[in-house]
Write a structure and sequence with these properties.
209 residues, alpha+beta, 10 strands, 26% helix
Amino acid sequence: MMLAELLSSVAAGKLPDADGTVTIVPQPSPRDMGVIAFTGHSVVFADLDHGWLRDRLPEGDLSAPLNPPFLRALELETGRTVDNVDALVLAQPLDGSPPAGLAEVTGDDRPRVARAMSHRDAVRVWACEEGVLTIGRGVAGRWEVSVEVDPEHRGRGVGRRLASAARGLCDEPLWAQIAPGNAASLRAFLAAGFAPVGAEALLVADETR
């Protein structure tokens, strides 16, 4: 199975069986390498020897694929760096038009936009007075969203409104990676109808950081 096929199944509501196993699939692109942990099932997408990978994953240890020893071994073997271990959330598209004040822009210099440009393809950017959202094709071609709320507008529900607006700007399932410690962002996405499906660690090459 290819990673894009697996993610499409998850987006359609069919998660991998919680059987305690690890599935190894090819990298969907030279850029995208990492690990996704679903409930009771992990997926490693890396163009590395399967035997080498499995030798470093203790049998029956459900947490091993996202634990530091395995991720560090991947870093040393590939020369890449684990970007973060993020919560992975997913939502279906919604009908509707962007809320008043949100307009597509080019050339926005906020950090969230620069990060999206370095990790995704076909990135589009919408901005309003309070913040910005980006949508682009990320891991295995899935559509990924990120939002950034300007500091002076935080705590007012802007993140939730931007995340909800994103669902009306994309006609396919929409994914987001959120640092677990960023509780405000996690609350905003959950309030906007995104549901947690797993956790993810991407290994990025130095030139993409």
